[in-house]
Design brief:
With about 200 residues, the protein is an alpha/beta fold. About 35% of the residues lie in helices and about 35% in strands.
Length: about 200
C-alpha cells in the first residue's frame, strides 16, 4: 500500500483538434508526402523526477498527420500519399516532388515546472524535399510554439492538448511562409512551374 501511495501517476494526452485549410491560391504542382512511422506515431514521454508530480505521455502522431494532410491538401493542386520513402525505380503517380517531415524535438513546460500559469509546447521539425527517385532537393528546419493559460481550461490534460494544437497551427502557418523562402525550394518550384507550362 505504501508503494502504491508513493508511486507517481502518468497523465496521457492523445492530441486532438481542428485544423483549418490555409486560405491561399494552391500552388499548381503535384506533391507527394511520406510519413515515416516515427512521425505518424510520434509520442513524447517525460518521466518526472518528483514523485509528487506526474509522468506525461503526449501522443501527437494522429494530429500531426491530420494537420499536415489538411495543410498540404490546401497548398498544392495535387497531393499523393506514398507508402514508402521515394527512391530509385519509383513507379507511382507522376509527381513534382515529395515532402518527408520529421519531428526533431518536442519540449513542454507546465506550471508545476515553471511556477507560471501557462502550458507551453515547442516543436522542432526537419523537412526533406525529394525527387521521386529519392534525390535531395532541399532540407530545412522549422520551429513552432503553442501555449495555453490554465485559466481557460478545467484540467492539465486539456491544457496540454490545446497547447499542442496551437503549436501545430503555428507550424502550419510558418510552413506556408517558409516554403517559398528557401532558396533551393524557390528555384525548384520555378523550374517545376516552367515545365508544367511547356
Amino acid at each position: 500500500m505504501l508503494l502504491l501511495l508513493n508511486a507517481c501517476t502518468t497523465k496521457q494526452v492523445i492530441v486532438e483538434g481542428k485544423f483549418p485549410a490555409p486560405l491561399m491560391n494552391k500552388v499548381p504542382i503535384s506533391m507527394g508526402v511520406f510519413y515515416e512511422d516515427a512521425f505518424a506515431n510520434h509520442e513524447f514521454f517525460d518521466e518526472t523526477k518528483n514523485r509528487q508530480e506526474s509522468d506525461w505521455i503526449v501522443k501527437t502522431g494522429q494530429a500531426q498527420v491530420a494537420m499536415w494532410d489538411t495543410l498540404f491538401g490546401g497548398m498544392f493542386e495535387g497531393l499523393e500519399h506514398l507508402p514508402s520513402r521515394p527512391g530509385p525505380g519509383y513507379s507511382g503517380p507522376p509527381l513534382d516532388g515529395v515532402l518527408v517531415p520529421h519531428i526533431e524535438e518536442l519540449q513542454y513546460a507546465i506550471p508545476a515546472q515553471t511556477n507560471v500559469k501557462v502550458y507551453e509546447i515547442w516543436l522542432r521539425y526537419r523537412f526533406e524535399l525529394l525527387t521521386t527517385e529519392g534525390d535531395t532537393i532541399a532540407v530545412w528546419s522549422m520551429t513552432a510554439y503553442g501555449k495555453t493559460p490554465t485559466a481557460f481550461l478545467q484540467s492539465s490534460v486539456k491544457a496540454v492538448n490545446l497547447a499542442a494544437v496551437m503549436a501545430l497551427r503555428d507550424a502550419g502557418a510558418h510552413f506556408v511562409i517558409d516554403f517559398t523562402n528557401h532558396s533551393a525550394v524557390r528555384e525548384w518550384l520555378q523550374q517545376s512551374l516552367e515545365r508544367s507550362n511547356e
